[in-house]
């Protein structure tokens, strides 16, 4: 049988396709998204507009976009430390939760303190909590050679259950009418908002700083270089004598700390207390952000905005068009799906048979 | 009548930087086991891929039963009666044996018919086969039986076996040879690719020996011994030796004492009581046929493996047996491993990034963990110019360099740092003649400046050309050193055949 299209290796990977593939993926997502809307009997133009344009047509919308993009970008850049090193940490959701628990615990304990040190201490505790939680799969991997994909994922559920236990048990708000939530943090335990009347908070600044620091580490330091080498070729890393276990521990610890800070950013920012559903799966969605952004801090920054929009769009679409909000997750899934597909073009080209 | 099933006539195939097949010609008789013997990189695989339609030759002809053949794909080869069993199994692990068999067939056939045929074949040749077991429950030998049955289902005239015993236990290998013998009794022809001498002598009828792309000779395997084959395979030209011993000082810089390791792994060679010394300015060589413990020894010397070792590695009176690779480098010991791509260099990274893999003492590549790009660039350019590496600039990825150029680069990287000891495995493997002589000269020059070199090589000519003394490694044992100027070719052959001392 004559094949219509053949896939031919390029020989060397295409630099332009490396950047274009995510853009193709987004385009294809929109195309197939329209198809889904048509199948659901919605006018695709109206639906897409409600989904992707109207949510960011005013300052409030843009602020909301940044509120969502902040944790996504921060977790994603943390994950890039692991993924660059070929470590598949998919437990950022748990590391975020543990960060929120550690930092939130500090916030609850000092709820009536007027010291300006409360917030920095919460952020520090959040980073430590996330890092410690991240180092459990690192320990299991280096000591027992367990698969980090499974352990980090399972530990996410453990962290969520610990949070569950705390908010219904020992940390429940004594004045909270038995609702499963803690008492609110004091004024000193809240992220300052950047603009009066908008929800965008200081976490954005922290994220931008950490994105810049990550870029510096990747491109200018020996540590970033070692991560890269051991990701590309573990044998070459051994030949050079890099300490494999140290790299595994530090990648997990950095990722955990970043996710933990993202967690404390959420609870001390928009939320203001601890309860069950502090994160709409930011820790998992950040995996998509990380790959869509090509594991590069700048790419991750843009990708976080795109994915954040799917969160906002889903809310608007549900509100105005009665489209189920889960369509947002469908879009996230489509982006990843098409990205994996278009990635083929980096190393291969398609040739049409005539 | 033409007694030859296959005639190979003047096949040439050039890859960038390497002449993989240079005017290769030989004939294969019907109903025989014909061995194709040679070291890694000798050109065996290239030839077989041409025969099986996986790559096309640049020039030359192949005749099958007097008919000129030129396959564009393996399926064309299969139709014409050429079957192949690859060294690495190409089976779907989670599917059953019969599912794998049906997937490999060109024609459409019912499961029932397939099973009948497969059972018939397996009975005929004593190949044990449980058609309904999933592949991942089978041993290596059983998987190979599946591969063989799959090839036989196509009713080939000739079966190509690519290093089939490399994954088998000795008992499984015995069984395989019985099967092969039976196949030839049925009139089938086997082309048997290997670098194991013993297998050729014990089991093959004819043998064609290849070395660096050339056919050395085709001869009757039964009339050969391991020694004669080893010399033909590894190459040895009788020449007047002008080894200069004047650079050697008396102090011992590097010493290995009774090094032993037991891997409890059938695919790895155990090492037993390996001892040698390197004096300052000395070039010491380790010769031997591939797979006799060279890789395992190299891993102990670089520090990539530091577990469960008996014995000592001593550098400047310091026991370094347990030290990590990085610490050894910091003591001024340099290494170049056998594999350029993915081991001594990262293919995806640029040349200047690859410089950083070798952190010799006193380098200024980084300060407090922050990279000094100016220093890295100038060192890289220095390596490129001093070692005549052909590349547009230092930003080119390592994988875009030809084998010879990349090898000059990874050796230059170590040599320019002037280490006290330099340990190299296969310094000129798969590189062109120009790079080869350049690398050898630079190593000799380095020894004159006081560096001690250890060279593990499967190329006898190379060792004879550049070493002061050499030992032979065989089955994990190392012979006593012989001064290269007193080399006795017959004795060397016997040692490589397995009789150390």
Short summary:
With 354 residues, chain A is an all-alpha fold. Chain A is 70% helix and 3% strand. Chain A has helices spanning 15-39, 44-53, 59-84, 92-109, 118-144, 148-168, 203-220, 222-232, 234-240, 244-271, 282-292, 297-321, 327-342, 344-347, and strands spanning 5-9, 348-352.
Tag the structure with descriptive keywords:
heterodimer; A: 354 residues; mainly alpha; ABC transporter involved in vitamin B12 uptake, BtuC; two-stranded antiparallel sheet; 2 strands; 70% helix; 3% strand; globular; B: 501 residues; alpha/beta; Rossmann fold; 3 domains; seven-stranded mixed beta sheet; 23 strands
Residue runs with pLDDT of under 50 for 5 or more positions of chain B: none
Q: What is the global morphology of chain B? A: globular
For the record, give the distance between the C-alpha atoms at the N and C termini of chain B, rounded to a whole number. Answer: 50 Å
Helix content of chain B: 25-40%
Low confidence ranges of chain A: none
Biggest β-sheet description of chain B:
7 strands, mixed
Oligomerization category of the chains in this entry = heterodimer
CATH topology of chain A: ABC transporter involved in vitamin B12 uptake, BtuC
Distance between the termini of chain A: 14 Å
Average pLDDT metric of chain B: 88
Separate helix tally of chain B: 16
CATH class of the largest domain in chain B: Alpha Beta
How many individual domains of chain A? 1
Largest sheet of chain A: 2 strands, antiparallel
How are the strands of the biggest sheet of chain A laid out side by side? 1-2
**Beta-strand segment tally of chain B:** 23
What fold name goes in the CATH topology slot of the largest domain in chain B? Rossmann fold
Q: What integer value in Å does the Rg of chain A equal?
A: 22 Å
Q: Please give the count of helices of chain A.
A: 14
Give the strand content of chain A: under 5%
